[in-house]
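Subject: design request, 141 residues
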């Protein structure tokens, strides 16, 4: 099974994990990690690395981060070469949202078998899930 890790500033990642549990129940090889203002950067980087190692059972880890170019994204970029050299594959998708995570967790064992396919599904689901109410119900302002 492909591992999944949600990483964000503050408690957003934990909130997404809680919402997923409410909707789907508990999920194996799924974790959340938050970066907090008072945390030492190197300590966060080490926690991030340890989570990847913990979640990877041989099929890689799909990492969801909140913002492109911000600390969670930058830490994943710093770790990618080390992880790959240790035979841990990761893909990193930015702009995490709840529909994206739900789709990935429900598809990673049944419909999608590779990390490369899974990150593409995450990206398309994330984009397709962004909608505006009045447009959807056909009302114009």
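Subject: RE: design request

Done. Sequence follows.
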């Amino acid at each position: 099974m492909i591992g999944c890790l949600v990483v964000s500033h503050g408690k957003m990642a934990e909130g997404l994990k809680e919402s997923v549990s409410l909707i789907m129940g508990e999920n194996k090889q799924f974790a959340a990690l938050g970066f907090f203002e008072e945390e030492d950067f190197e300590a966060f980087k080490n926690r991030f690395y340890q989570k990847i190692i913990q979640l990877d059972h041989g099929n890689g880890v799909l990492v969801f981060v909140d913002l492109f170019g911000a600390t969670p994204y930058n830490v994943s970029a710093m770790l990618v070469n080390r992880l790959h050299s240790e035979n841990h594959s990761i893909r990193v998708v930015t702009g995490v949202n709840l529909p994206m995570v739900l789709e990935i967790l429900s598809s990673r064992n049944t419909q999608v078998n590779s990390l490369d396919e899974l990150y593409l599904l995450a990206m398309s689901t994330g984009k397709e899930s962004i909608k505006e109410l009045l447009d959807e119900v056909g009302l114009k302002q």
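DSSP finds six helices and four strands in the chain.
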